[in-house]
Specification:
Elements: H1 4-11, H2 24-27, H3 35-41, H4 44-54, H5 62-78, E1 83-88, E2 96-101, E3 103-107, E4 110-113, H6 117-121, E5 122-123, E6 143-147, E7 154-158, E8 161-172, H7 181-201, E9 210-224, H8 225-228, H9 232-237, H10 262-277, E10 282-287, E11 293-298, E12 301-302, H11 303-323, E13 326-329, E14 343-351, H12 364-391, E15 413-414, H13 417-427, H14 436-441, H15 452-455, E16 463-465, E17 470-472, H16 482-506, H17 510-525, H18 537-546, H19 554-557, H20 564-572, H21 578-633, H22 640-671, H23 676-704, H24 715-720
Parallel strand pairs: 1-8, 15-16
Antiparallel strand pairs: 1-2, 3-4, 5-6, 6-8, 7-8, 9-11, 9-12, 9-13, 9-14, 10-11, 14-17, 16-17
The structure holds adenosine-5'-diphosphate and magnesium ion (MG).
Adenosine-5'-diphosphate is lined by residues 213-215, 217, 297-300, 346-348, 356, 456, 466, 468-469, 471.
């Protein structure tokens, strides 16, 4: 339904008033209660005690909490804050906040602003409506939030409201994790312990701490709000349930890295300014492959911070878009027929001396250490490809994985030719002694020269080594990165632990022991290595021969989260108890069902209330036109080509009516299935294909029916007018 005003609205130029003309470095982190601010505002001893607490050397006691809380409140009030909120990440992909004002009565009708250490440390949201996967029954519905001092508090402005947000974990009354951050923090401990153990086994005693680093590249679509609100499906489900791809999609490859439109660039600038105030180091922005698709990538940070920051990035993209008459779509696949949006999760390990442990290094010794960490990661993926796949499973991502735009559901590791060759040489015993010369002869010392350009040319791989980090490319754009990061940290911790033990047991000197151990391991884990085209059909067959899992849908993949193997892994490293793990499975399978249910019923209503009425109108227009024409022209001209159109419209209407009725019935059947796993399978295997068929018929109608009658904006309008 083309509406000139809408197009013109989209052409509005946005006079942008920057909130500051200062260089970014001058206001970076201004709205966070960061270490710099704390140093200025806390007594020296308190500051030092705080630092040892976040370095996990001691706990924060109530006296220290009182001092920090007071300083935080003073600072927040100066920034205009009236409220504070524990800010946490429940088991959805969103963040949660409940605001309380600083106001406190002190008697005689007088009030002051107060914020105590107790309030800082612990909050008790009335959180019985958050998904708990059965951990909390209603009689013990209380969940409470606990301050995470390793991520700085920050100020969020929304319209006139200004709130102090305190990053927190979210626990049940019995101390079970009800959120995504708690297991992430536990996995950060696990990887620290295991990595230090591996370093010590190799004779490296210098680092005192090892932490995971994350750099999530976030893709998103940006569309005009006017179109968004006319699409029932977009508003209800975040994706289009019907719609023909535009005649010009991405085949001309003219959007990727193209020059950025003024309205979009203004939007990006505004987003970045908000991010900088929050101390989020946004670095890269560009047009992505699909029309109206974009990417924002930060500098990498310590995992916990990066996860909080990515959650904020998603929030701010949405918020700033709204303010600019736009909508940011973070769904993994908003439009069929053109690329979906992913989130490349770049992951590495760093020690407290600033060394990236996945950097090949310069000396042979560095190289051995590098190889141990590299092989540990490859081994982790080999052993737990199923869990990694399950970590990113969702109804949205099911539309992407394996659709030849995103990696397939088969998890494999890309190392590039040169590294693969080095591994093969080690495996074949070409390196028997870890002498400096032997390794140099085999080219290991040349690895640093291997620029990222050489190693990172395979865009089809779900898990690629890109020079000095791994890039997990199968994550969906809407997903909170905490869980995939938790899984990565945990599985690599297990492998580092295992390799360290074997190296220590070997008896030879550390370097030689490491080579022996790596040789054995490479033999076992090499089926996971694949440098070829992950989109090809041959790979699917080859992967099956190699025994690699290929779980194409969420209901097929999710149960891999709760196998005995998975339970053993997560409990051994104290990341998730069996109850917590099963709760996560429960929450995610339930969400899958709910999302599909909303999609099914939304499609049903769109068809009944919008598409069929439009089709009937058009049908009647053609019918009366043919009727009138026949009356005037009698038999003087053959009207069968016109009748063909009428026939096709009529037949499509018939089929759509029949299938839509079936959709409603099947949806009712689904609701009656008690077991969530079975219900999810029913949605996946019965309802989803039916929705696809319905879509095909509706899309065919869209190409026939008068555009003026079509009841919703078409893809070409949505994607090309902004
Ligand atoms: P690409 O060409 O794959 O897009 P870039 O070099 O632009 O790769 O980096 C992409 C992302 O990788 C950035 O967000 C960056 O911060 C992140 N990254 C770089 N190094 C690391 C690291 N050591 N750990 C985690 N993330 C990293
Ligand atoms: Mg990338």
């Amino acid at each position: 339904m083309p509406k000139q005003e809408v197009y013109i609205a989209a052409e509005r130029t946005f006079a942008y008033e920057s909130t500051s003309n200062k260089p970014v470095s001058k206001f970076f982190g201004e709205n966070t209660f960061n270490l710099k601010t704390m140093r200025q505002r806390l007594p020296k001893e308190a500051y030092e005690a705080y630092i040892s607490a976040i370095e996990r050397k001691r706990k924060i006691d109530i006296d220290l909490a009182n001092i920090v809380a007071n300083a935080m409140k003073e600072w927040a009030i100066e920034k205009g804050a009236t409220h504070y909120s524990h800010w946490f990440q429940p088991m959805t992909s969103l963040t949660a906040e409940k605001h309380d004002s600083f106001l406190e009565a002190i008697g005689n009708g007088e009030y002051i602003e107060r914020f105590s250490g107790k309030q800082l440390v612990q909050g008790e949201p009335d959180a019985s409506s958050f998904p708990s996967g059965g951990i909390r029954s209603t009689f013990e519905a209380r969940g409470y939030t606990v301050w995470d001092p390793s991520s700085p508090a920050f100020i969020i402005k929304g319209g006139k409201g200004i709130t102090l947000c305190i990053p927190s974990i979210f626990l049940s009354y019995n101390g079970e994790a009800l959120d995504l951050k708690t297991p992430l923090l536990r996995s950060i401990n696990a990887i620290n312990d295991a990595a230090l153990k591996a370093l010590r086994a190799l004779g490296n005693n210098r680092p005192k701490r090892v932490y995971a680093t994350l750099g999530p590249e976030q893709e998103y679509f940006l569309i005009d709000k006017e179109f968004y609100y006319r699409r029932f499906d977009l508003v209800m489900t975040g994706r289009t349930l019907v719609g023909m791809p535009p005649t010009r999609g991405q085949q001309l490859e003219d959007h990727y890295f193209g020059s950025i439109k003024e309205r979009i660039l203004s939007f990006m600038h505004e987003v970045e300014e908000e991010l900088y105030l929050l101390g989020i180091p946004a670095k890269t922005r560009h047009n992505e492959v699909a029309p109206s698709q974009f990417e924002i990538a930060p500098l990498f940070e310590e995992a916990n911070l990066a996860a909080d920051h990515n959650a904020l990035v998603m929030e701010i993209l949405r918020k700033v878009a709204t303010r600019n008459g736009l909508v940011a779509l973070l769904h993994d696949k908003p439009f069929a027929g053109i690329n979906g949006s992913g989130k490349h999760l770049n992951w590495s390990l760093s020690d407290d001396l600033g060394n990236n442990l996945l950097n090949p290094g310069k000396t042979p010794h560095d190289n051995i250490q590098f190889l141990v960490f590299l092989i540990a990661t490859v081994r982790a993926v080999y052993l737990h490809a199923d869990i990694l796949r399950a970590a990113i499973a969702s109804s949205a991502n099911d539309h992407r994985l394996g659709a030849n735009e995103a990696p397939p559901a088969i998890i494999s590791v890309f190392l590039g030719d040169q590294l693969t060759k080095i591994l093969t040489n080690i495996e074949n015993g070409a390196v028997t002694e870890a002498t400096n010369t032997a390794i140099i002869d085999l080219g290991i010392s040349r690895i640093p020269i291997l620029s990222r350009d050489n190693t990172d040319r395979n865009r089809t791989s779900p898990f690629a080594f890109t020079g000095n980090k791994f890039e997990f490319r199968a994550v969906g754009s809407h997903q909170n990165i905490s869980f995939p990061a938790t899984v990565l940290n945990t599985i690599v911790a297990e492998s580092l632990d295992y390799l360290a033990e074997k190296i220590m047991q070997n008896g030879r000197n550390a370097k030689q022991a490491a080579m022996d151990v790596l040789r054995e391991e490479i033999k076992i884990i090499k089926p996971i290595l694949f440098n070829g085209d992950n989109y090809s059909h041959q790979w699917e067959e080859e992967a099956a021969k190699r025994g690699l899992p290929n779980k194409k849908t969420t209901p097929a993949s999710l149960p891999d989260m709760i196998t005995d193997k998975a339970i053993k892994l997560f409990t051994k490293y104290n990341v998730l108890s069996e109850i917590e793990l099963k709760a996560r499975y429960q929450v995610r399978i339930e969400r899958y069902c709910k999302k599909l249910d909303i999609e099914a019923i939304t499609l049903y209503e769109m068809i009944s209330n919008q598409i069929l009425p439009a089709a009937f109108k058009y049908q009647s227009t053609i019918a009366s036109s043919i009727d009138d024409t026949e009356e005037i022209l009698k038999d003087s001209i053959d009207l069968s080509p016109q009748k063909e159109i009428l026939k096709e419209v009529t037949s499509l209407i018939n089929q759509i009516i029949i299938l839509n009725k079936k959709l409603f019935e099947m949806r009712t059947n689904a609701l009656a299935i008690h077991d969530e796993t079975k219900r999810a399978e029913y949605y996946c295997n019965e309802i989803r294909p039916l929705m696809e068929t319905l879509r095909t018929h509706c899309d065919r109608l869209e190409t026939i029916v008068d555009t003026d009658l079509w009841p919703m904006p078409k893809f070409w309008e949505i994607l090309f007018i902004n």
